[in-house]
Design brief:
It is a single chain. By secondary structure, the chain is mostly helical. The protein has one domain. 77% of the residues lie in helices and 0% in strands. It contains 7 helices and no strands. Helix 1 packs across helix 5, helix 3 crosses helix 7 and helix 5 packs parallel to helix 7. The longest helix is centred in the C-terminal third of the chain and has 38 residues. The two termini are 35 Å apart.
C-alpha cells in the first residue's frame, strides 16, 4: 500500500485531493452542520466532539435529538460522511508521501507515517457505523455501542492530529531543506 501511495503522490494528485478536501471542509460539511443545528439546536454531533466523549454523553446526545434530527444525522453518517473520509484520508496520505519523497524519507521507518491518515479514515468509518447503530437503538441506545463509538472517535482524532503534525513537520523540513540548498 505504501508503494502505491508513493507512486500516486504527484503534485497534481495532491492538489486535486486537497481541493476536494477543501470543498468538503469549507462547503459541504458546514452546510450539513447548519442544517443539523437547525434540527437539534445546541446538540453537537458526536463526530465533531474532540477528542472523544463518555458513553453516557453519547447516549444522552442521541436521546435528546428529535426524530427528524436523528434521521438527518443518520443520513449524514451514511451519505457525505462516507465520502469525506476517503477524500481527506487519501489527500493527507498522498501529501505526506509527496513531502517524504521530496525529503528522501520514503524508505526508512518514517514511511509508515504515510498510513496514518488511512488508519484514521478506518476509525472514522467505525465511528460512523457506531453512531448509526446508536441512532437505530433509540430510544435506548446501548452503553456498549456508545463506548465503542467513543473509542473510534478518540482513535480517529489521534490519527488525524498525528497526520496534521506529519504534514507540518514535512512542510517545515522541506522549507528548511530548500533554504539550506541556496
Amino acid at each position: 500500500m505504501i508503494k502505491l501511495l508513493q507512486k500516486w503522490a504527484t503534485g497534481r494528485n495532491v492538489l486535486i485531493l486537497l481541493a476536494a478536501d477543501l470543498i468538503f471542509m469549507m462547503g459541504i460539511m458546514p452546510y450539513m452542520g447548519k442544517k443539523m443545528e437547525a434540527l437539534a439546536p445546541g446538540i453537537p454531533p458526536l463526530d465533531i466532539t474532540i477528542p472523544s466523549y463518555s458513553a453516557a454523553y453519547a447516549q444522552d446526545i442521541i436521546t435528546k435529538m428529535t426524530d427528524p434530527a436523528r434521521a438527518f444525522y443518520k443520513s449524514i453518517e451514511l451519505g457525505a460522511d462516507m465520502i469525506y473520509p476517503l477524500v481527506y484520508g487519501f489527500a493527507f496520505a498522498l501529501l505526506i508521501a509527496f513531502l517524504w519523497k521530496q525529503l528522501g524519507w520514503q524508505n526508512g521507518l518514517l514511511k509508515w507515517v504515510i498510513l496514518f491518515p488511512l488508519i484514521g479514515m478506518i476509525f472514522d468509518y467505525g465511528e460512523n457505523f457506531s453512531v448509526v447503530s446508536l441512532i437505530n437503538q433509540h430510544p435506548n441506545p446501548s452503553a456498549g455501542t456508545a463506548q465503542i463509538a467513543a473509542y473510534f472517535s478518540l482513535s480517529k482524532w489521534s490519527f488525524a492530529f498525528s497526520s496534521v503534525a506529519a504534514v507540518l513537520i514535512g512542510l517545515l523540513a522541506w522549507g528548511w531543506k530548500a533554504r539550506s540548498s541556496k
